[in-house]
């Protein structure tokens, strides 16, 4: 007997990630002040980190903060990637 293949369900984008969020003043200094979807916000944050060489050379999961990111990271000079996501969430409306 031949198996009948069921078509794969199309993956729908997460509506919460597509909804634009407004960065506060501290985060706006890094990603700009216009409302952005969370995915785009994270992309801009990573672009900033890479452009300024802020990813730790020895442990790639750590981000070293410059003056602008220190404000976003609540004064911490180094955070992990996972901690960064949580801290950034506190700076969007």
Helical stretch tally = 5
Distance between the termini: 56 Å
Number of domains: 1
The portion of residues forming beta strands comes to: 5-15%
Largest sheet data: 2 strands, antiparallel
Integer average pLDDT: 89
CATH architectural type = Orthogonal Bundle
Specify the overall morphology: globular
> What is the structural class?
alpha+beta
CATH superfamily: SWIB/MDM2 domain
How much helix is in the residues?
Answer: 40-55%
Taking all Cα atoms into account, the compactness measure Rg is 18 Å
What's the helix-strand series?
A: HEHEHEHEH
Could you walk me through the main structural features you see in this protein, from its secondary elements to its overall organization?
The protein has helices spanning 15-18, 25-31, 38-51, 67-72, 81-89, and strands at 20-21, 36-37, 62-64, 78-80. Helices cover 43% and strands 11% of the residues. The protein has one domain (18-89): Orthogonal Bundle (MDM2), CATH 1.10.245. The strands form two sheets. A two-stranded antiparallel ribbon has the order 1-2. It is an alpha+beta fold.
């Amino acid at each position: 007997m031949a198996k009948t293949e069921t078509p794969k369900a199309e993956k729908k984008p997460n509506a919460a990630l597509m909804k634009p969020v407004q960065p506060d003043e501290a985060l706006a200094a890094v990603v700009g002040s216009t409302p952005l979807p969370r995915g785009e916000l994270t992309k801009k944050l990573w672009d900033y980190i890479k452009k300024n060489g802020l990813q730790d050379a020895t442990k790639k999961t750590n981000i070293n903060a410059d003056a602008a990111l220190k404000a976003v990271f609540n004064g911490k000079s180094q955070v992990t990637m996972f901690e960064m996501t949580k801290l950034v969430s506190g700076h969007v409306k």
